[in-house]
Amino acid sequence: MATRIAGQALTRREFNAASISALFVGMTVCISGCGGGSSASPTSPTGGSGTPTTSGGDRTGAVSANHGHVAIVTSAALQAGGAVSLNIKGSADHDHTVDLTQAEVGLVAAGSRVAKTSSSDAGHVHTVTFN
């Protein structure tokens, strides 16, 4: 692998590879059971500030009634500061999306608590909480 000079832009391929690596390094998925109406919230790994993080500076949200979903706002998205739409499928057999506005991404980046309801799929929704 070539040495990167500070300030040099990543290629799309390098960015995608780094993003995928960040998903698998230090990621913890907590499963609290499957059920459409459960309000149980699993815990997420936390950094020193109490903000759920992965080792790459990404923010991991706790997914209620989780059965394999994973919600991560990448450090690149946090730095960009724009609105994002997260696909939280993870290892589940169906998709959900969670939409965060630009203001909400800023709050997540600052370590503030943000809770959002996912899209409905397979007859249920999830609440994803970043804090």
Short description:
This protein has helices at 12-24, 75-80, 102-109, and strands spanning 59-63, 71-73, 84-87, 97-100, 114-117, 127-130.
Question: Could you explain how this protein is built, in words?
Answer:
This protein is an alpha+beta fold. The protein has a domain at 40-130. The protein is 21% helix and 18% strand. The protein has helices spanning 12-24, 75-80, 102-109, and strands at 59-63, 71-73, 84-87, 97-100, 114-117, 127-130. A 4-stranded antiparallel β-sheet has the order 2-1-6-5. A two-stranded antiparallel ribbon has the order 3-4. The longest helix has 13 residues, at 12-24. The radius of gyration is 15 Å and the shape is globular. The chain starts with 11 loop residues before the first helix and ends with a strand. Mean pLDDT is 76; it is low at 24-51.
What is the CA-based Rg, rounded?
15 Å
Shape: globular
- Describe the main β-sheet briefly: 4 strands, antiparallel
Bin the strand percentage: 15-25%
Oligomer type = single chain
**Which residue ranges are poorly predicted, with pLDDT under 50 across at least 5 consecutive positions?**
24-51
Q: Mean of the pLDDT scores? A: 76
Structural class: alpha+beta
Number of helices: 3
* Number of β-strand runs: 6
What distance lies between the first and last C-alpha atoms, to the nearest angstrom? 36 Å
> Order of strands across the widest beta sheet?
2-1-6-5
